């Protein structure tokens, strides 16, 4: 087995869970899409409020719905690789991880030629050797400070409550636009974002040491 590769210069293998900038800043991240049922409506909500987010894409879903990926990129959002088949990679060798991540990158770039993919997020947060492999491929491992638990939808009111109560300055927030019915997540974002904006919160990308 090859040793775990060194990170590409400027790309840390440390899992980032905070945004660029200080104060009332949040980094919204959406996993498991693209999802033709909920992602377009989410994009409408984000666009209406002038917010950009990170979309961590599931490779099989990219192949199924490349048009939705094109819209994500056209709207100015940032992409993350969320693996090809959303498997638990925690026990995988570096070689197997790299092959999977390359397959997912290729799927994304079939949808959007030349797409930039500056982040990687491990399915289930089961990191194993993935942070070093992703960093060697130029992707920063992307964690989170707050997870809403929206993979098991608890009702929009509860999601709103968890978001309002759980945010802290600089937090990366994990939400889902794919992998199931995510209409409650979109509804919650639509309700909370204007309130946060009125309170002075801004939205920014997760930190990368190679970006100012
Ligand atoms: Zn996921």
Automatic annotation (TrEMBL):
The keyword Hydrolase is assigned to this record: yes
Entry keyword set: Hydrolase
Source species, domain of life: Bacteria
Annotated Pfam families: Polysacc_deac_1 (PF01522)
Keyword Hydrolase: yes
Molecular-function GO terms, alphabetical: hydrolase activity
EC number(s) recorded for this UniProt protein: 3.-.-.-
UniProt domain NodB homology: residue ranges: 24-204
The protein's name: Polysaccharide deacetylase family protein
Organism: Micromonospora harpali
